[in-house]
Write a structure and sequence with these properties.
The chain is α+β, with helices and mostly antiparallel strands and 867 residues long. The chain has 25 helices and 26 strands. Strand 10 (350-357) and strand 11 form a beta hairpin. The chain is elongated. Mean pLDDT is 75; it is low at 113-165, 372-387, 530-535, 625-633 and 804-867.
């Protein structure tokens, strides 16, 4: 007890001794407590905000996980689409292969039938009361092709000619194969007959046997220098070239003494020299017959070109043929020519003459020179000299023809103008061969044209001069001085093709009718080819000067962008549509016109506002009644823009076909600028052949979904133009299958009329342009073309649209399945056909080919040779 009381007493004493806190100490403690409280509250706020951020992050993470899940699903769908697309592509390729096999079988069957036929064809023409029989020569026989034959190849070229950069053997072989179906065997008289009566008659009356023997004697003496090389086991190509050079030198030496007046041709060995092409590259043919003795070689001065090979190949080899064809292309590139002439010399000294005219490439055997082969004596080791061979008729024939070439006038080498014409430069209209009524032309013959060119395209010439088949054209932008002594721009065009309905006639017809967007015709002349072509081929040349037409529509579409606004382009295409519909409408005399060759190169535009449709060379003016118009199977136009019915040889042509071609041009422009250029794109637009184009097109247009998906346009595609092509697709194909459009009558087995013609309404075409323009920005854009189209379709007479319909088939005993009807050029001279007769007769195409009546087999074909 005592101790406990003491300790408690001590504690109380200690507490009593401790001093009480001062006010300063109490204030400090309070601040510390306050600070701690603030820190705790701040930490609580931060924890709360962090929790909020964590929650938001969790939500974002969840959204991201969901996006990844959705993306994975989309990726799976895309992979499945790719897999399905590969399957569709494989299905399409298999279908193409099957179709190709079927076509080959049909062609083989028909070719076997044709092979059994005699070489001379007897053509029968059914008329209303009687039939005329015609006997045709070899060259005419080859022109009597069905739609799958010559008519196809006489149309506008379907693909670009190979332009070899290295001129290797592969490119030459490809070029030869490209024209293999357009090349025919012929005799020399028939081949010269194609050049005109002057050439034919001159050759028939040419006599120079004594002169030929003198030339051969001199040639033999010159060959002493290379006797050993000629006696070699394998004679080289340059030995052939030297030997032929000696022969031509001997001919040239003797020609001055034999021929009066003096010859105008000069032989030039170009083996070590070159001639500049239009694009600046060089070509080295083995030799040329030039109309100028200048050292400066020009294609304009070449009368004939020669290709020589050694013993390693014959005249029919694709390599030498390709070289010759490239020479022909170069000869016609700058200088407008009516024909090209060439020779090939190959194994065993065989010489052939090759004539290139709009109707085809004709190859005629000429003879053989004593160079190699069985006629060459064996040289012993002790004596390498060859004994002098007696001249043969084959050798004399070669020399006679070469001497005959020297006799021909330099002006008759196929030129359409004076020989001195050269691009670029100046040309007086008076120098153009041809005639035309003076009151029809706005320019006088004294007018001089100056050719426009820039540094980059000094030697550029527009047109189809680089194509050897069908109509050839040369076009140049030019200037001239008008009657007010002011310079004006214009467009100048040469044209050469087979006789038919000329471009000038169609152009003047649509102009006089007031059809809009047709360039004014300033000057036009025609060159009558009646005396220059026989054997069923009558040629017609034309020279045309129109007002300036600007540039092609393709120039408004760059890679991934438009050069003009969507509204401007829609307005321009409205102008094209107006032109085609107005031309196809009946006039007071129930006549109308179809263009039949709407393509990217024929749709021009000036200043991004003024459209023009040019090149009416394939056009046709019809003056028959609405229900019965003569027609036939024909492939006229540019294959990649031909309508499906034209590609299928359906026999009828209407404004629907021209509008379908216009639709294809716009699709091509959009696809080239905004779409994927894959293999399918190439199958549609490369124009390898009509069959490939037809099969690819039919698959592409089989449905609207497939039509859009196949183009694979970029996301930044022009929406208004896309709406326009969708609207055009609806009018052309919606509600129809390809079979419906290209159907044939089951009984007669002839193409049925186009079902779209009966429902054609110009007002609906105006509606799709109005809908498309509603999606475009039209600020500060004057829509003059679309306004004019709207006014035109509101008129009642604009709805009376015409078309060319199929004729009824004549009795089956009048025409054989593999024969074709002759053109009007082969008909009875001086006899005017009545309308009734026209209902039963096939008319000549623009290219001059013979049209096959619609009931004949579209696969029938005359025998053709690659030689």
């Amino acid at each position: 007890m005592t101790s406990n009381s003491l300790s408690s007493s001590d504690d109380s004493n200690k507490r009593a001794v401790q001093p009480s806190p001062s006010p300063r100490e109490e204030s400090g403690n309070y601040l510390i407590l306050q600070l701690l409280e603030t820190l705790v509250k701040g930490q609580a706020e931060r924890d709360k905000e962090q929790a909020k951020r964590d929650k938001e992050q969790a939500e974002r993470d969840e959204e991201f996980r969901q996006w990844r899940k959705d993306q994975a699903e989309r990726d799976r769908e895309f992979r499945q689409w790719q897999k399905d697309q590969i399957g569709r592509d494989e299905e399409f390729r298999q279908w193409q292969k099957e179709q190709s096999d079927v076509l080959k079988q049909l062609l083989d069957i028909n070719l076997r039938k044709v092979d059994a036929a005699p070489a001379t064809a007897e053509l029968r023409t059914p008329t209303r009361h009687h039939r005329e029989q015609y006997s045709v020569s070899v060259s005419q026989h080859h022109q009597s092709q069905t739609a799958s034959g010559a008519a196809t190849h006489l149309s506008t070229p379907q693909k670009s000619i190979p332009a070899p950069s290295k001129f290797d053997e592969t490119e030459y072989v490809n070029l030869s194969k490209l024209y293999s179906t357009f090349s025919y065997n012929s005799s020399l008289p028939d081949a010269l007959d194609l050049l005109g009566s002057g050439w034919r008659d001159s050759w028939k009356s040419f006599r120079c046997k004594g002169s030929v023997d003198k030339i051969l004697e001199e040639y033999c003496n010159k060959c002493e220098k290379i006797r050993g090389e000629l006696a070699a086991k394998n004679v080289l190509e340059d030995v052939y070239q030297r030997a032929f050079g000696y022969l031509v030198e001997a001919i040239q030496h003797q020609a001055g003494e034999i021929l009066k007046p003096a010859p105008v041709l000069y032989w030039c060995d170009t083996h070590s020299k070159s001639i500049k092409r239009g694009d600046g590259r060089s070509r080295k043919p083995d030799g040329i017959f030039s109309t100028s003795d200048s050292e400066r070689l020009q294609w304009q001065d070449i009368a004939a070109v020669v290709e020589i090979k050694g013993e390693r190949m014959d005249n029919d080899n694709d390599h030498i043929r390709g070289q010759l064809l490239q020479n022909f292309i170069d000869m016609a590139e700058v200088m407008p020519r009516r024909f090209m002439l060439g020779l090939t010399i190959a194994n065993k000294g065989v010489v052939k003459v090759h004539v290139c005219v709009p109707g085809g490439i004709y190859n005629a055997p000429l003879g053989r020179l004593h160079l190699t082969g069985a006629s060459k004596p064996k040289a012993s080791k002790a004596n390498t000299r060859l004994c002098t061979l007696k001249a043969t008729d084959e050798e004399r024939r070669v020399v006679a023809f070469l001497l005959f070439l020297y006799k021909q006038s330099r002006e008759d080498c196929g030129y359409l103008t004076g020989r001195n014409f050269e691009f670029p430069g100046r040309l007086s209209l008076a120098k153009i061969h041809g005639a035309s009524p003076a009151d029809e032309n706005m320019l006088s013959r004294k007018t001089t044209l100056t050719f426009i060119y820039s540094l980059g395209d000094k030697d550029k010439v527009y047109g189809r001069h680089k194509h050897l088949k069908g109509q050839r054209t040369w076009a140049y932008p030019v200037t001239y001085t008008d009657k007010y002594n002011k310079k004006a721009n214009a467009f100048f065009k040469f044209q050469w093709g087979l006789d038919g309905e000329e471009e000038i006639d169609v152009h003047r017809f649509v102009l006089k009718r007031g059809v809009p967007h047709i360039p004014k015709l300033l000057y036009a002349v025609t060159m009558d080819g009646g005396s220059r072509g026989t054997s069923g081929q009558k040629y017609k040349g034309e020279a045309i000067v129109t007002e300036d037409v600007g540039e092609t529509i393709r120039n408004l579409f760059a890679d991934g962008r438009l050069v003009a606004s969507e509204a401007q382009i829609i307005d321009i295409f409205a102008g094209y549509t107006h032109t085609l519909i107005a031309a196809a409408a009946f006039d007071d005399n129930e006549r109308f016109a179809l263009h039949r060759d709407i393509s990217m190169g024929n749709l021009m535009v000036k200043d991004k506002a003024h459209p023009y449709i040019i090149d009416w060379g394939c056009g046709r003016v019809c003056s028959f009644n609405e229900k019965r118009i003569s027609s036939g199977n024909e492939l006229i136009g540019t294959a990649i823009y031909m309508s499906l019915r034209v590609l299928e040889n359906c026999g009828t042509r209407s404004v629907i076909d021209d509008l379908e071609s216009l639709f294809l041009v716009l699709c091509h422009c959009l696809w080239s600028s905004y779409g994927k250029k894959d293999d399918y794109y190439k199958s549609l637009w490369s124009g390898r052949d009509e069959f490939s184009t037809k099969t690819a097109r039919g698959y592409w247009l089989s449905s609207k979904e497939n039509f859009i998906d196949r183009m694979q346009l970029l996301d930044r595609r022009p929406k208004a133009l896309l709406a326009l092509i969708e609207g055009m697709y609806e009018l052309l194909f919606s509600g129809y299958t390809i079979t419906d459009i290209c159907a044939k009558k089951p009984v007669e087995n002839v193409p049925a009329p186009d079902p779209r013609v009966e429902k054609f309404d110009p007002a609906k075409w105006n509606e799709i342009f109005q809908l498309a323009i509603g999606r475009a920005d039209t600020k500060q854009i004057k829509l003059s073309c679309l306004d004019n189209l709207s006014k035109y379709v509101s008129k009642d007479e604009s709805r009376r649209i015409s078309f060319i319909s199929v004729v009824s088939p004549p009795p089956l005993d009048t025409v054989g399945a593999a024969s074709s009807l002759p053109s009007s050029n082969s008909g009875i001279k001086g006899q005017k056909r009545t309308t009734s007769q026209q209902e039963h007769l096939s008319s000549p195409t623009k290219s001059g080919s013979k049209r096959q009546s619609d009931y004949a087999s579209s696969f029938a074909s005359s025998k053709k040779s690659r030689n």
